[in-house]
Amino acid sequence: MICRGRFGRVSAREEKRMRSVVGREPMEGALGPWGMRKARRGVSCAFGLALFTAGCAALPETTAEAPALPSAYAAADVPLARRDTGHWWRTFRDPALSRLVDQAMDQNLSVAQARARLTAARAQAAAANTLFLPTAGAGGTAIATTNPSETDDPLRRPLMAGFDMSWDVGLFGLAENANRSATASAAIVAADLESVQISVTAEVARAYIMLRAVQQQHVIARAALEARRKRSDLVQTRIRTGLAALGEEAEAALALAEAKAELADLDARAASLRLQIATLLGSATPDPALETAGPQPMPAEGLPASHPADLLRARPDVRAAEQRVLRASAEAGIALSDLYPKLRLVGTIGAGAPFTNSAFGVAGGPVLQIPLLDYGRREANLTARKAQVEEAEAAYRQTVLDAYKEASDALAALSASRKAVTGQKAAVAAAAQTERSARVLSSEGLADRARLWEAETALLDRRRRLVQAQEVEAVALVALYKALGGAAPVAGRE
Fold first, then answer.
1. What is the percentage of the chain residues whose pLDDT exceeds 70?
2. Which residue in 86, 276, 326, 434 has the fewest CB atoms around it within 10 Å?
3. Is the dihedral of CA 378, 382, 383, 387 positive or negative?
4. What is the CA radius of gyration of the chain?
């Protein structure tokens, strides 16, 4: 039902005439003193009803409350550190890695898509701020007719032109909640962009670390292949002299074949990782500079960590979940405002008025829309929106808990990997000492070359395991930085 208070109790003909532009004569000349009093009374009634019911549509603003978290991460035996939201990958002190990350931020297609979505969301949020501001438009109508007789029907005037103005007054929190919803939506998209950037950065770092580890393993595998060829030659010499044991030739041939197969597998893995990095950089052509083996990235000493509550500020998925709670609350407020009347102010200024004695006029007034009967649809929508607020709150709390668990697991994995690296370094040192002793004994004629070959092979195997352990450590550090929201915690920095 629409109540137009500007008309008061006037006749149908007068109401029809009032819908268009009034003439140069004052409004009172068109309606008369009695009609004007009724019109003003209707306007006052409309505003009074709207303002009286506006205070009844207040929906309390919902805020996301995080679950209680421990003061330190589970399985973390490191001191807390302050956060530095700078370039966390620089902790590896590898210029090539920094260059690749910078290229990925400029060229990655997933990041480009997320940036475009953010631009669109911000434009929509800016437009939402104007939804409840006055608007104006211009229009004209020209009608040709073969009937020479004049008519008072405004829809059949030969020429009409004017400016139409309207203002939807966002009462009962409608304007505020619409702005809140649009702002929260833009914030969600901004957090999604940051999440994509963090993921792309982590994937570039992870692929680069794995590539350098594969290249180092390839160097070791080539050395192992040469050592096994020497053993094969030694076995052939022993066979010619009749000193070879039964099955020694087959064992040497098998070891040589395994070394060749390992080299082929490492070559394939390196090619796949170079292509993966190129894809992350938005290209189908791998960087030729990555074909040359480079040093393995080594993380800085010390475990990065932060207080679990920092997740609420650092992780973009947590911030996005919080904004979803605010958006759901705003949409519930919009659903609540639908239960109450809507007020709109309209006006027209134009030429070609419906009055026979006027060529120019002005008309305007309030339009009040009062909901009466919709079979409970608005109430059902409000109930659904409130349930969505509860769902968003539960999702936010779950996101915080998942973030805490992910960071705790990553921190524990990094701690374990660093202990493994320490153990492998000790094993390499012991194997190197054994290899040196075997080499001295062999040069003095106190041990055969088979013993020296076994010591060299054991050393190469320990070096290969150390490279793998260092790769696991570096990848675990990347996973931790990603779990912490992509920010590098640095102790002692404000």
1. 71
2. 86
3. positive
4. 39
Q: Which tokens is 131 given?
A: 């939804």
Best CA proximity match to 212, nearest among 264, 273, 152: 273
Q: Which residues contact 284 (CB under 8 A, 6 or more apart)?
A: 278
448: tokens are 């055969």
Question: Alpha-carbon distance 366 to 40, whole Å?
Answer: 11
Distance separating alpha carbons of residues 210 and 294, to the nearest angstrom: 12
pLDDT at 272: 96
Token couple for 478 = 């990347």
Least confident range from 104-113, 130-139, 215-224, 404-413: namely 130-139
Average pLDDT over residues 5-9: 33
Torsion of CA 458, 462, 464, 470, to 10 degrees: 180
Per-residue pLDDT tens digits for 153-172: 554 555 666 778 888 888 88
Backbone angles phi, psi at 484, to 5 degrees: -85, 5
On whether residue 46 sits in a domain, the answer given is: yes
Residue 400 near residue 477, CB atoms below 8 Å: no
- Distance, in Å, from the CA atom of 365 to the CA atom of 5, rounded to the nearest integer, reads 8
Angle, CA of 223, 234 and 251, to the nearest 5°: 80
Q: What is the pLDDT of residues 279-319, one digit of tens each?
A: 999 999 999 999 999 999 988 766 555 677 777 777 899 99
* Distance separating alpha carbons of residues 377 and 88, to the nearest angstrom: 52
**34 or 180, which is more confident?**
180
Per-residue pLDDT, averaged over 142-162, amounts to 59
Whether 494 is covered by a domain: the verdict is no
pTM over 0.70: yes
Which residue range(s) make up the domain with 396? 2-489
In the chain, how many domains are there? 1
Which CATH number goes with the domain that contains 80? 1.20.1600.10
Assigned domain for 450 exists:
yes
* Residues ≥6 apart with Cβ < 8 Å to 88: 481, 486, 487, 488
